[in-house]
Write a structure and sequence with these properties.
The protein is an alpha/beta fold. The two termini are 59 Å apart.
Length: 890
């Protein structure tokens, strides 16, 4: 009861109002009882006094003269006139001498009025002088309440002749008035008030309930109902609300709903647009991946070709240089000065050409993986000294200075000596080449980059700094690319193939180290390389892993470190970054590396990354698409093969997880959507899941949607499951010919997809077909083609007979010509519509004309297909009918 009141605001108001009414009426009754009775008694008392004055005035003279007869007669008349009044005249001994009741004469007054309080009162009135002439009080006499008024008869001179003058009070006139009617009147009024209160209570409850229901409860119920629908996603507006505060609330609600609906519509448009963009992106990524793969193959072929060609070129170059040197040594006879000068030019250019060929050959070997290192412990200072012998004449010629600083602990390297010498020669050669004045400084120290798992250093950082021309900031990220120099004009001015730094990076990468540069135009450049000094670097398989990168990224994204120690995956498979996106780095050193966690690998860097090592690398990896999409937000597990038995499952087959997620959001209120990213095992998984419907994309890698659809329809376990194509390409003819239930072209209309799946959920294979066709030839053709296709066909030309036949046979499909002259086919449709057993049977309508919108509306959406016979030849009509049967599921 209490809950019933507290749960409804209208009930609260009703109870409050009725409570107030009840309280008012209770107060009214109390006042009526408390004040009403005394007031009426006062009126009766005043009346008694007036009557006693009149009686005493009447009998005063007879009393004075002792005319007893007159007194008896007067009192008798009074007794006859007033039935409820008794008057007694008693002497000071309380003996009654006269009375309207003759039986009481000569009796004591306190005997006649038997009440102890009255006796005390009458005695008191005889002994004490009273201020009031008449004293009245209610006494209960013989079970009845009576107002008894006492009028003391005082002694006076005219009475002295009989009673003397000694007594002040000679007796009293006493009048007894029956006041039971007064009390009954008050009780009657109280009862009337109570009845009025009850009536008012009921009346008020009804009236208040009607007003509260109309003015408050109904508008609030409409608002609550609309709110519930809104919470479920329905955009409903409230109408017919009052123009008060509740009406203002309803108007606010309608405004909110309209704004949300507008936002929802804009959101759906945005989702559709993004879905389309995702489709386009996926296509572009697929094309880029294919192009990238082809480029890698071409690059490998090119490297192999260059390696072969370089070998073929170097062989004759060796002969040219050798024979030129022999001529200069005058082995074959003396030469004049002009001949020597010419031969020296030939030898110099031949050696330059040979160096170019060697560089091309080196870079080709690096890229083709044909270089094998022979690491040993190497003394760094001795190595540099051996190199500087070559450069000292040139340094002296240009007036440059060379300084070398090797810190303690960095004296030894564990490297391939020849390759390290080649690295340093390239760096020092560039420094000398691009420096016209100043100093070249080589420093070596133990590096804090590339620490092992225990945090111990294992690399020496060697830097070569010059005071040369410097490099523009925007050119720093491409100077290590093949055939690239910072500026084209630099190539012309300083010559060179642009392969030196590429060779350096390749050789450093073979040592599991890294290279980077810092520069400022006009102030010089510094090139850094990390080379190992511990044998363990080569003993450990794979590249050097910096776990500090995982710790830094985990701290930034506030996730466990283990997240970044796992390999990235896409479509349930482990992938490398370039499998997912195009980083833009044309010479990524990690191609061919088994390690897929590129953010952990020392020296692996994307385009634009200046230093590929902790801590500088963290900043670049924080915005990496692979880290954000594949590591932090792993695609949801699309394959869930064990739905509960109560769930209706729809399988979405699409290689794009976002497309599956979009379908899931559209259908999740009514269906459990299981996504399958791979089309290769889709058919087997569908057999296990047994969904009510399947959505299928067409453009998928390895096995496209057409092949999947064909396999689904060829398998006995899956052929009856409706398949809806959801694709960016439009080929409905092929889809329906393969057995698709419907076709949606992306961007997807989710609401239409939901309606379609609900409509085909009741799908059952069509075996029995009923034909209602008035035209005999058309009917025969339909029966013939349907029977040839394997259907059990029943046909009639009469609508009334059709009703009787379908009651008995319960067909799976109805084919009806709805444009017969007497429109009796619509009677048949009305019967089908009203039949609980047949109303869900799909109908194909045949017409002889194009239906108007009103006629289509009249069909009430129960027609699966409408075929206008007038538009088709006989052959085309049969073909169209077959297509419609396949769409329905036949």
């Amino acid at each position: 009861m209490f809950e019933f009141i507290t749960r409804k605001i209208g009930n609260k108001l009703l109870v409050t109002f009725v409570g107030i009414l009840f309280l008012v009426m209770l107060i009214e009754i109390s006042f009526r009882i408390y004040f009403g009775l005394p007031d009426r008694l006062k009126i009766a008392e005043a009346g008694s006094k007036e009557v006693m004055d009149t009686i005493f005035a009447t009998i005063k003279h007879p009393l004075t003269v002792g005319d007893s007869e007159t007194i008896h007669r007067d009192l008798e008349e009074i007794g006859n006139k007033y039935e409820k009044i008794d008057v007694y005249l008693c002497d000071f001994n309380k003996l009654i001498s006269f009375s309207t009741d003759k039986k009481s004469i000569n009796k004591k007054i306190d005997y006649v009025i038997d009440n102890e309080d009255f006796s005390k009162t009458i005695n008191k009135s005889f002994t004490e002088e009273q201020n009031e002439a008449v004293f009245s009080k209610v006494f209960k006499v013989q079970g009845k309440r009576s107002l008894i008024s006492i009028f003391p008869i005082k002694n006076s001179p005219e009475c002295f002749h009989c009673h003397g003058s000694s007594r002040k009070i000679l007796g009293a006139m006493i009048m007894k008035t029956d006041v039971e009617d007064v009390y009954r009147t008050v009780i009657y009024q109280m009862r009337r008030s109570l009845i009025l209160t009850i009536f008012a209570f009921v009346f008020a409850a009804i009236i208040v309930n009607l007003f509260v229901k109309k003015l408050i409860k109904n508008p609030l119920n409409s608002l609550v109902e609309a709110t519930h629908k809104f919470a479920k996603g329905e955009m409903v507006n409230i109408t017919g609300y009052p123009k008060d505060e509740i009406g203002s609330l309803c108007e606010t609600f309608n405004y909110m709903v309209n704004e949300v609906a507008k936002s929802k519509m804009e959101l759906e448009k945005e989702l559709t647009r993004r879905a389309k963009l995702l489709e386009e992106r996926d296509e572009l990524v697929a094309l880029l991946q294919k192009a990238n793969k082809q480029l890698k193959e071409l690059d490998t072929l090119k490297s192999a070709f260059i390696a072969n060609m370089s070998h073929e070129l170097r062989t004759p170059m060796n002969a040219i240089i050798g024979y030129t040197d022999l001529l200069l040594d005058e082995v074959d006879g003396p030469l004049n000065e002009d001949q020597k000068a010419s031969l020296k030019k030939v030898a110099a250019n031949a050696r330059h050409l040979l160096q170019l060929i060697n560089d091309v050959l080196d870079i080709s070997k690096i890229e083709s993986g044909k270089i094998e290192l022979r690491p040993n412990e190497v003394d760094l200072k001795a190595l540099i000294d051996s190199i500087m012998v070559t450069f000292e004449p040139l340094i002296a010629k240009k007036g440059l200075n060379f300084h070398m600083h090797i810190e303690k602990g960095a004296e030894k390297l564990y490297v391939d000596e020849d390759k390290t010498k080649q690295i340093l020669i390239n760096l020092i050669s560039n420094a000398v080449k691009f420096t016209h004045q100043g100093v070249i400084t080589l420093r070596a120290r133990i590096s804090e980059r590339g620490l092992d798992k225990e945090g111990n250093p294992q690399f020496v950082e060697i830097s070569v700094a010059d005071t040369g021309i410097g490099i523009k900031k925007e050119d720093l990220d491409k100077i290590f690319d093949k055939f690239a120099q910072a500026d084209v004009s630099t190539t012309r001015q300083y010559e060179g193939t642009g392969l030196g730094l590429s060779i350096v990076r390749g050789l450093v990468a073979l040592h599991k180290g890294m290279v980077w540069a810092e520069s400022e135009v006009g102030r010089g450049s510094t090139f850094y390389v990390l080379l190992p000094f511990k044998k363990e670097v080569f003993d450990a398989p794979g590249p050097v892993i910096e776990e500090r990168m995982a710790e830094a990224l985990a701290q930034y994204f506030e996730v466990p470190k283990e997240v970044f120690l796992e390999e990235p995956s896409y479509e349930g498979k482990s992938v490398r970054c370039w499998d997912y996106t195009q980083c833009g780095h044309v010479n990524c050193p990690e191609y061919g590396c088994p390690e897929k966690r590129c953010w952990l690998v020392l020296g692996t860097h994307c385009k634009g990354m200046k230093i590929a090592s902790w801590p500088e690398k963290v900043e670049a990896c924080r915005i990496c698409e692979v880290v954000r999409d594949l590591v932090l937000h792993k695609e949801p597990v699309m394959v869930e093969l064990k739905p509960s038995e109560k769930e209706k499952v729809v399988v979405a087959i699409d290689d794009n997880p976002d497309a599956i997620d979009l379908i899931r959001k559209y259908l999740e209120k009514d269906y459990k959507v299981i996504g399958l990213l791979s089309s290769e095992e889709a058919v087997n998984q569908v057999k296990e899941i047994k969904p009510v419907a399947i959505t299928l994309d067409i453009m998928m890698p390895k096995k496209d949607g057409w092949q999947v659809l064909k396999e689904l329809k060829e398998d006995e376990e899956t052929r009856d499951i409706p398949v809806i194509i959801v694709s960016i390409i439009d080929n409905k003819t092929l889809a329906f010919s393969l057995g698709a239930a419907d076709y949606f072209v992306k961007p997807l209309d989710g609401h239409s997809l939901l309606r379609k799946i609900k409509s085909i959920e009741t799908y059952c294979p069509v075996k029995k077909v009923f034909v209602l066709e008035r035209d005999e030839k058309t009917s025969k053709d339909l029966i013939s083609i349907l029977k040839e296709t394997g259907y059990d066909v029943t046909a009639t030309r009469d609508s009334k007979e059709a009703i009787n036949l379908v009651k008995l046979q319960k067909p799976d499909l109805l084919i009806i010509n709805i444009t017969d002259p007497d429109s009796s086919a619509f009677d048949f449709l009305d019967f089908i519509k009203g039949s609980s057993e047949l109303k869900e049977v799909p109908i194909i309508a045949l017409t002889n004309k194009e239906l108007t919108e009103e006629e289509k509306e009249a069909l009430n959406g129960r027609i699966k297909e409408i075929i206008n016979k007038a538009l088709f030849s006989e052959e085309q009509l049969i073909k169209e009918l077959k297509s419609s049967l396949k769409k329905i599921g036949g």
